[in-house]
Amino acid sequence: MNKTSIFSYILTKLTAACLLSLLLTSLTLSGGSGLTRYKFLTGLHELLFTLPTLVIVSYAILCSVFIDKVKFKNHSTLKKVCLYILCGYLFFLPFLIFKETNFLFVLFAGSIGAIFSVFFYLCTLITKKFIWIGYIIPIVILITLITINFVDVTQKEQWTEKRTQNSFEASFQHFSGKHKIPIELKRGDILEFTIESPSENPNAYMGDIKMSSEFQEEENYLASNGPNTYQFAAIKTGTYYIIVSGNKLKGKLKVDWNIK
């Protein structure tokens, strides 16, 4: 292989890996409460680089390279598809060492793995035929991952809010994303707050409660004091934010706090 061929070969595998990662992430995120723009974009950033995704993608690339090394006299495409299917099943064989795992699970999971394996192979074939795809897909994913940190993808519908000195209340028809509640604290202040968010949508869920400030994006001194109750210690005087997040929420959000 010359340098151009090597580059094209690597690009083909990386593009197929990117598309497989997107498929795995999309299927994972679309389960349960359904897929929203906020859930997809934030989940994409988190799931693409998790250990399971990296293991699956690395396994797919290694199997693909190995299959490419096998020489076939005839019907090479059909035989390659069979090898990809076999690799999809082989991935789950080690799970048989666990007592809780039975052969039916391996057979079922292997069938899903075989589908993903063939999908990976199809992606390599498409990228070989349309080489420009190999440039566009990685660039689009990279740009998306970068812009996620700078673009607010929060969705609010019929949002109305009311704030007092020690409380915040909002009502809405739809809320997917994040909302920041600013609070002025002095150094040494202890902020205690309680969050209530009864939702009319059974598929909705609240995200992790976080704190940020004018000094940094996420503060570390947030502790849970019980169900829906939190405590935070300010180490500097300034503006701090209670960050509430959720997906497909419908109803009300109420936050009560006191400062000691």
Proportion of strand residues: 25-35%
Low-confidence stretches: none
The helicity comes to: 40-55%
Main sheet attributes: strand count, strand direction, barrel closure: 9 strands, antiparallel
Number of helices: 6
From the alpha carbons, calculate the radius of gyration and give it in angstroms.
24 Å
Order of helices and strands: HHHHHHEEEEEEEEE
Question: What is the rounded distance between the termini?
Answer: 70 Å
Mean pLDDT: 86
Instruction: Report the principal-axis shape.
Output: elongated
Blueprint (SSEs and pairs):
Blueprint: H1 3-30, H2 37-47, H3 51-69, H4 76-90, H5 103-129, H6 131-148, E1 155-157, E2 160-163, E3 167-185, E4 190-196, E5 205-206, E6 210-213, E7 222-226, E8 229-233, E9 238-259
Antiparallel strand pairs: 1-3, 2-3, 3-9, 4-8, 4-9, 5-9, 6-9, 7-8
What do you see in this structure?
With 260 residues, the protein is α+β, with helices and mostly antiparallel strands. The chain has 2 domains: 3-148, no CATH class; 155-259, Jelly Rolls. 45% of the residues lie in helices and 27% in strands. Strand 7 (222-226) and strand 8 form a beta hairpin. Helix 1 (3-30) crosses helix 2, helix 1 (3-30) packs across helix 6 (131-148) and helix 3 (51-69) runs antiparallel to helix 4. The radius of gyration is 24 Å and the shape is elongated.
